[in-house]
Design a protein that fits this description.
By secondary structure, this protein is mainly β. The protein is about 0% helix and about 45% strand.
């Protein structure tokens, strides 16, 4: 007896290819989000205290390992100092306001695995520009700059402990820190604002942390902005290069050598916060027009020079003309989340909202505001501005087109049926023998040619299958055929074209 054939044609809306090391976020005053279900879910119990920067890190399965605010001033007026917390929200290490960086740095900290040391991690911390607000420490006239802590997760019954603490690297650096994976996929690069002279590039390998080079800032750059890198392992026209954005400067970064090459500025704009799309094709910047002081969210096509010969700055497209957003951070669901401030005129309080940029890999992204709302904490009337800082490679291809499909030809025996599932979507357009069907599902009862195009949230997916009558020579694996059609793709001409799967 022949068994029915089940053909599944799925349209993926989730982050099918994202890694899970950044699936749990801790930020603000005791706030946290969990992305392990595919969407952000508020969780409780976080001990986080920060006005701006923070970081957290999970294992490959999305289980939280630890989190930190990166440092902080001496505890005054109920304000917390710098700490590292374990997965149980217990203090793993207390910096006591005297170590690490500052939680008022936009990017106060970031985590990378220690090369060649399983279950060991580097927590890098960054100083805030306001380091002297409580008075300059005589032994630290420039603040604490870039430092690191090494954490061994095999200690304390798997809760982890610090094995090297507050190791100084460079002491004249503020606000920005970025981590990039080396081309060998074992080592890492750390990028910082190295005083006003340029961007400092540090190598992290089995020998430790070493300075690899300092690359000058462009003349317009003040040296104190955030640093973001593209998630892509390869950049424009080369397999070794990445993109790095600092304040208003766009650079090429050589993943093998650590060499930075300045590419362009973004013209007469003042971007303060920015983020790359998951596939690295677009850059989003929260800018202030210098003439009108209007806040805007602008999208740039990073690949335009290679695709069309245009400059990156000439591709500027206003996504949202009245954008009240601040720090932006990629997430494992393929969206970019950002903070925005909301003033309650009735109470005079200033609250922090979290919104999202949806479908950032496309030329037609959308904005959702006020997904989460966080009131000013009783410990302070000042809201938080930033979200956790993560290495961008974690999110590469989290929403890109990748096709995994079985044979285009399947076999149907007499009396059997074939169930086609086009996947969840907004609308379905069937063709061939199923041209009159309008639902997600279609049952095949006889041989023929069937096609389907699914409109999803971020694009189109289409496929075709030829159904033949079975014979004694039919393939033995015909009992299950799986088609996977993602809903987004990387365009090759700067437009959001649908793709077709061909024989």
């Amino acid at each position: 007896m022949n068994l029915p054939i089940l053909l599944i044609c799925l349209l993926f809306f989730g982050a099918s290819f994202a890694q899970k090391e950044a699936n749990v976020w801790h930020f603000g005053i005791n706030y946290s989000l969990d992305f392990n279900s595919g969407v952000p879910v508020q969780t409780f119990g976080s001990q986080m205290f920060t006005f701006e920067g923070s970081t957290s890190y999970c294992d490959e399965n999305g289980n939280l390992l630890f989190y930190s605010n990166g440092g902080g001033r001496l505890p005054v007026s109920g304000q917390d100092g710098g700490k590292i917390w374990n997965k149980n929200n217990q203090v793993m290490y207390d910096m006591q306001g005297a170590e690490g960086g500052g939680w008022s740095a936009a990017q106060s900290s970031i985590v990378v695995p220690a090369p060649g040391e399983p279950d060991v991690f580097y927590l890098f911390t960054m100083e805030e520009l306001e380091f002297d607000v409580d008075g300059i420490v005589p032994s630290e006239p420039n603040g604490r700059g870039l430092r690191y802590f090494k954490i061994d997760m095999t200690l304390n019954g798997g809760l982890g402990d610090v094995i090297e603490a507050d190791v100084p690297v460079y002491d004249y650096s503020y606000e920005g820190i970025c981590a990039i994976r080396h081309a060998n996929e074992t080592d890492y690069w750390i990028l910082i604002n190295q005083d006003t002279s340029g961007i400092g590039v540090y190598s992290v390998n089995q020998s430790g942390v070493q300075l690899a080079g300092v690359y000058p800032h462009p003349a317009f750059y003040n040296g104190f902005g955030i640093i973001k890198s593209s998630p892509t392992p390869g950049g424009i026209g080369a397999t070794c290069c990445n993109k790095v954005m600092t304040n208003a400067g766009l650079y090429d970064f050589n993943l093998s050598t650590g060499v930075l090459s300045f590419e362009t500025d973004l013209g007469a704009t003042s971007p303060t916060y920015f983020e790359f799309s998951p596939n690295g094709s677009y850059l989003y910047a929260a800018i202030t027009d210098q003439l009108t002081a209007a806040n805007q969210l602008v999208q740039y096509n990073v690949f335009a020079p290679a695709q069309t010969g245009q400059t990156v700055e000439s591709t500027a497209q206003v996504v949202e003309p009245n954008f009240n957003g601040y720090y932006m951070q990629l997430a494992s669901d393929g969206k970019i989340y950002y903070t925005e401030l909301d003033i309650d005129l009735g109470t005079g309080t200033l609250n922090t909202l979290i919104g999202s940029i949806n479908c950032p890999n496309t030329s037609s992204p959308t904005i959702t505001t006020g997904i989460f709302s966080y009131p000013s904490n009783s410990q302070t009337t000042f809201p938080f501005f930033s979200l956790p800082n993560f290495p961008s490679w974690i999110f590469y291809n989290s929403y890109d087109a990748q096709i995994q499909f079985g044979p285009d030809t399947v076999y149907l025996c007499p009396g059997d049926t074939l169930l086609l599932n086009a996947g969840e979507g907004i609308s379905w357009e069937w063709g061939g023998d199923a041209s009159t069907n309008t639902s997600q599902f279609y049952t095949v009862t006889s041989p023929g040619i069937i096609s389907a195009t699914v409109t999803g949230v971020c694009g189109l997916g289409s496929d075709q299958v030829v159904v033949l009558p079975c014979t004694n020579e039919e393939p033995t694996d015909s009992s299950l055929v799986e088609f996977v059609i993602p809903n987004v793709f990387t365009p090759n001409d700067g437009t959001n074209d649908p793709f077709e799967i061909q024989d």
